[in-house]
Amino acid sequence: MKRLLNVLTACALAGMSLCAAATPHVFLVQNSGWMEPFYGDPKSPFKPLVAALAGSVVQPGDALVLAAFNQSQPGAPSPRALLSVKAGEEPVRARVTQALAKLDTARKPGSEALADTDLGEALQAAITQALGGKPGVVWLVTNNRNSPNNDQATAARNREFYGLIHGGGAVERALAFPLRMPVQGAHYKANGLMVYAFGIGREGGAALDALLASGRVKQVITEPPARLKPLDRDTVRLVPRRVVNAPGVSFASNSDGTLRADVAPDARTPQARIEWNLENTMYPYTIASATITARSTLAGEARPIALDSARVRDLAPGKPAPLASNMALPVAQIPDKWSLAALQSAGSAYVLPGRIELHLADQQLALSQAFRSRMAELFPGDPLPDIFTPPARVQASSAVLPVQVRIHYGMGPLAAVIGAALALLTLLAAGAWAWARPRLAHVTVNEESQSLRGRAGTVQPVYDGAGRQVAQLKTTLFGHHLQDVREGAQVRLGR
Description:
By secondary structure, the protein is α+β, with helices and mostly antiparallel strands. Helix content is 24%, strand content 37%. The chain has ten helices and 23 strands. It has helices at residues 2-13, 36-40, 46-57, 92-100, 119-130, 154-167, 201-214, 340-344, 369-378, 412-436, and strands at 25-30, 63-69, 80-86, 136-142, 171-184, 189-200, 226-229, 236-244, 249-253, 259-263, 271-280, 285-298, 301-307, 311-315, 321-328, 350-367, 397-407, 439-445, 448-454, 459-463, 469-476, 479-483, 491-493. Strands 8, 9, 10, 11, 12, 13, 14, 15, 16 and 17 form a ten-stranded mixed beta sheet that branches. Strands 3-2-1-4-6-5-7 form a seven-stranded mixed beta sheet, with helices on both faces.
């Protein structure tokens, strides 16, 4: 542990502190005696797997600490740091390959006996020491034989490790990837390897989710992850199949999981009957039994969703169950097609955000039989399924499905408004031109014709041949007329 801390301190002094990185990653690689076949088999893909995984998930700007672990003993601390690097400065995969090249199974101090294993100790050290209590992602590679001090009660030790995962507030998200990896060593043989991924803190959990969504993990590990935590949220998913008796309304799922409701602007059906597929997202658990309720919040208005069935039974992961419902639509909040909001959205869509909330109560989870069979194949003789036993306190869960209500407005109203606006502008321009252009008027004074020019709204004097003002000429949009005609003067419009 002291060496691990020293490496981290040097990393920080070099400007590569874990807390300064975008996402810190800690890779813990087991090298106790139970791992002997993974190191001893010349064809073992164990080390290349670790290097490939690190190279795929650690992105430029991320910090990486690689450490070997077994069980800490006086004079033989565990974990022991092998590498500390910041991605982007050097290729991560090559550096991890180099660091693992000389790693072999560890022995107890002053003895030829192979070292024991303490998974909990290694995870705690990664959280409290390597990450310093800050968010990050911890990867733990092991054969899942948790036997500190050569304790043969591995089932009990596994449950302690599992309790640390569920009882510790630091672990926000935990996944396990059981992998088939047959290897033969001088003393032992093994069929499988387990890779754990722990999202530490809220940011670490989000970073782990983002890695899964990006496909970077799947580039190396094609097996689906088994969920360890959380088991109380995002446990089910609704996938729409069809909408019944709601003209102008359709539902579909976006690639990001958001439910999209496409609504015609003239749709005024207050209720939509929707047929869904209810999917269990908690591999490897089957929801043996649970009661389910749902509600929608659309345009800021929360309403219950009437479900045809309020109970879920034997819902296995990957096997959807049909579920029908009646759901209220926010027809009162749909802007009229002549409204400013509709005109601004013409040719695209006006979006009302919302969500659907599902709540499962009295939830009973059971480890799927298919997963148990796979574990028995990969880890024969080991009580591995015990580590996946759901905590008794997890009897309720929730799931939130983001919803976008999209109202599609055509270009007709906007074109009409634009046409009316252009006509008005044309009329105003014509009026302005008519107002501004000079108008010619012919005035006869004492039988002598005069030509005067004036703009609409102007008044100008009219003079006789002797230079005396005899009248005033007023010009309007509609013509000319004389005013203030001098008494006895002979003045008229025209020639």
